[in-house]
Amino acid sequence: MEFTTRTQIVPLGYEYNRVLEPIYRFKADKVILLRQPENKDFEADFQQELVQELEDNDRIELETRDCDLFDINNAIEAFVNAIASCESDEVLVNVSTGSKITAIAGMIACQSTAANPFYVSPEFHNEDGEREAPEAPPVEEVGEISELPVFRLQGPKPDQLAMLHYLENNGGATKKELIEYAREQELSFIANSKSKSEEGLYQLLDTNIILPLTEEGYIRVIKEGRQKRVYLEDHGKEALLTFPQSTKENQ
Asked: How confident is the model over 136-152, as pLDDT tens digits?
């Protein structure tokens, strides 16, 4: 799908470069800035300067929205509504600014939408421009402690994770090798099926493993000569790290 507008959603925390630089680097056409409503009269000078710079940029369309940066439910709602308002755009979400609450809220919102989150790492330098640890902690005082809700991620099914594990350990495989492994391990999509013909096994593999994992970006299938080989994508490696308890050990 081709997009004509690139929108970036970013909470306005006590940051400057981590807000501004990604906007310019990723060439955002529109910016939705989430701001703490009751703090607009108490924002730091550098925050107001940042907003003013965006307002003065004729190329960028700036929209500001109220968001309680320290309330998980309000922050999730703000992100979801902001993403929904630009569903025809390519949407990037900056989860490195604002509070830790907004970072969590931004990730939760991206899980159920097509928006893409990103994180900007901070760096600390001395007067000579060399990297070094900060002299004092960025936050000195502690405020309210809030309990956060837990949202369970739904990852690949056990049979699919077993196949991802196999692909990782073997650097890829043919469909025939995947079927042989599934039969050896008695994976349910084959063990519980009445289909035993070669054509039926390949169809089971495609329906239960290849197609869903390809659609989710976990694997890719490449034609090499007369055969097709299946390879693990980076997203598949991330799934194995995220759901380690569900993977089957390779024999």
From this structure: 666 667 667 767 666 66
